[in-house]
Design goal:
The structure is a homodimer.
Chain A: E1 3-9, H1 11-14, H2 22-32, E2 36-43, H3 47-60, E3 63-67, H4 78-85, E4 90-92, H5 94-106, H6 113-117, E5 120-122, E6 126-128, E7 137-142, E8 145-150, H7 154-172, E9 177-186, H8 190-196, H9 198-202, E10 208-215, E11 218-227, H10 230-248, E12 252-255, H11 260-270, E13 275-279, H12 285-292, E14 300-306, H13 309-316, H14 320-326, H15 331-345, E15 349-355, E16 370-377, E17 380-387, H16 392-413
Parallel strand pairs in A: 1-2, 1-3, 3-8, 13-14, 13-15
Antiparallel strand pairs in A: 4-5, 6-7, 7-8, 9-11, 9-12, 10-11, 15-16, 16-17
Helix pairs in contact in A: 2-7, 3-4, 11-16
Chain lengths: 414, 414
């Protein structure tokens, strides 16, 4: 099995100043293509430590991935250190330079010498195009071992790796065939899910592994099948999915790359229906999720974030009386918000959220975490009460997830 | 300066199955007490790799901290490996045993032999009481170097370290004082910033280090001052800040824990002013950032996400004529959006966004990444054109950042 080590460069990681989300992501991706990560190392922005880490890793691993230290500023020294390690020199790579120049021309900005220097890579390095930023990716081979350098900016690193490096690695190394099938559930806790499918899980063949990946009201079930023939693995995984689905049907919203917001989007498109939002406690996060999806303008007309009583009344037509009698966090108000938004903004469906996100604003009968979500559609309005956490951001995310799921269920029932 | 290395044990970390929040926290805490973390290493649950990591770390560091591998199950491997590394044996520690027994009695649970084994620690180890779980902490000294083993469960590790180990470390080692000062900038690229402050940076005394931490349109400048007297370091850092501020005044929005949305919030509160949003391309992300801040309801009334022409007209009062003549992504439309929102929703300020987030919708004269932001206030309306990237999510994040900054500048100018 191909052994890999990941080296992260940057004082800010050692000092705990930034969260390193890169290495976990890299670990997952490499594992999924059958490369085994045997060690992760983080060193500071200094040549000696980087050189030492490279030398140690080379003795143990077939593949060494480095992230960070590729930015244009002084504290970024990966490339210089590479030159010393491989006893070579930096040369301007024309493709990289063209890309960087274009990057600045597009933005109508002046290019500095520092920017130009970003196009320089070690002579022995193969340039790996980074279309998402100005720091180039690098691929270096020596004695059958592969060294890869990537920028530390997460979205640049992730794009570079998904689009260019993972395929290149699979082509370069003899890796086993690995097939992943993801089942995505919402509205059921990890342990309840585990109980429901326990018998099925215990009966899985040894070459098919199951992982629970919980995330804000969702639990993704990942099946990982390892073998030598892709078609066989796909068939085996599919057979397992068909066995487990009946047990959790009510909570499965999609597979693989499906997200709640994309699933909802496709449903709306297929029905030539539209949606609007009426948000209080989620403060725009629901519409953000919907509009993150490319092409969402085809079915999302817009929404109202109504934080104040005045806006709930003026923009959504919630009655003063209702707010006085039941308060903003109530079944009556959430229904008027959803119905008001649907009527006034002229959409097929409307989803509404209102709750106490916290940390303050809780009362004995409505503690922090009390949330109402509602969905208005052609067949009427459904409202649901949620009792969530005492963490503001968690409450916002959970509410948005459950609201999108309520919309999904409403569309499916229509 | 005392050098430390952190070793994390566990396959699940290498394979990316869990997020390692421990090492960032440890890095921050050690840095605060003036211990320099020079390396972080993660290895799997196997003896050979752990032994190798220990041996390497001992050659470089004065302090070696290990987390993980202390649980009652399969990965009780840390203690066995310690015994091998220090050529000693495990013995039951009576204090540890008493604590564990008490732990089970309190919960009315049966104690298994496995549980009892948790009270065993290497003969050469000093027992460090863990009142938050059943895995004991350990402190081992050899040739003036300190080895510490802690459980991997975050809240156990954090309590063990804050309450017991950090004080013990400060008593044991001669630690310098370290002071961090963060300057937060927006709207200027890392390389441009670097050129502006190059002379200042080059003139920094050796005991004050500078790091650039870029993040979506922002660059944080971190000054790290090392010495023996906190007051002196604070004064020195402050003096450096006052030297550099004039060079970048126009881009500095805050310090240390300030965020754009919190800074804007405090400005609005201090002026008893309010804000509303009129979002198109950001689709609710601006109001999400504003409402992430606890207490934002004091100054945020709400907003309108107007994705369709209809909503721009009906909810924000944008003129049909304007949309026809100039399109939704234009200076004229953004001004009408901001002014319409401010008037109709009755706030002191209104921020508006409209642009082509992509991936589709671009035209030769308005390519993907073309964005207009606007801010309406008591003294009129300001609009600004941005040329961003071809990545949808990046464009949303950058637009939101620049929009909040435009609001900030408008309030300050008022």
């Amino acid at each position: 099995m191909v052994k890999a080590e990941v080296i992260t460069i940057g004082d800010e990681i050692l000092f705990g100043q930034i969260t390193d989300t890169n290495t976990q992501w890299i670990g997952t991706e490499l594992t999924q293509i059958g490369i085994r990560v045997i060690r992760k190392t983080s060193v500071g922005d200094n040549e000696a430590d980087i050189l030492a880490a490279l030398a140690e890793a080379e003795t143990r691993a077939d593949l060494i991935l480095i992230t960070g230290g590729l930015g244009p500023t002084k504290d970024d020294i990966t490339k210089k250190t590479f030159c010393q390690y491989f006893d070579t020199e930096l040369i301007i790579n024309e493709d990289a330079l063209a890309l960087i120049t274009d990057f600045f021309v597009k933005r109508g900005r002046e290019m500095t010498d520092l920017n130009r220097q970003q196009a320089a890579i070690p002579k022995n390095a193969e340039y790996v195009k980074n279309s998402w930023g100005t720091a180039p990716g690098m691929w270096i081979e020596r004695n059958g071992k592969v060294f890869i350098a990537m920028p530390g900016v997460p979205f640049e690193m992730k794009n570079l790796m998904s689009k260019r490096l993972l395929p290149k690695l699979q082509a370069h190394f003899e890796t086993p065939v690995i097939y992943h099938k993801m089942i995505k559930t919402v509205g059921i806790g990890e342990s309840f899910l585990a109980e429901k499918i326990e018998a099925w899980e215990d009966a899985l063949p040894p070459h098919i592994k199951l992982a629970y990946l919980p995330h804000f009201g969702q639990v993704r079930l990942r099946l990982t099948a390892t073998g030598s023939n892709l078609a066989t693995l796909q068939a085996e995984a599919q057979a397992q999915v068909e066995q487990v689905l009946p047990l959790i049907k009510n909570n499965v919203f999609g597979f693989d790359t499906d997200e709640l917001e994309t699933v909802v989007g496709s449903l709306l498109k297929s029905q030539e229906a539209s949606v609007v939002t009426a948000e209080s406690c989620t403060g725009g996060y629901v519409s953000h999720l919907i509009t993150k999806v490319p092409g969402s303008s085809a079915y999302f007309l817009g929404g109202v974030v109504a934080y104040s009583y005045e806006m709930k009344m003026a923009e959504l037509g919630v009655k003063q009386q209702t707010l006085n009698d039941f308060g903003a966090v109530s079944e009556q108000t959430i229904c008027e918000m959803a119905e008001g938004a649907r009527l006034r903004l002229g959409s097929t469906y409307a989803i509404a959220t209102s709750g106490i996100a916290g940390p303050d604003g809780g009362t004995p009968d409505k503690p922090v975490g009390t949330v109402w979500i509602g969905c208005a559609g052609p067949n009427g309005t459904t409202a649901r009460k949620l009792m969530l956490t005492n963490l503001r951001e968690t409450n916002i995310q959970l509410t948005a997830t459950y609201a999108l799921d309520l919309l999904r269920r409403t569309i499916l029932a229509a």
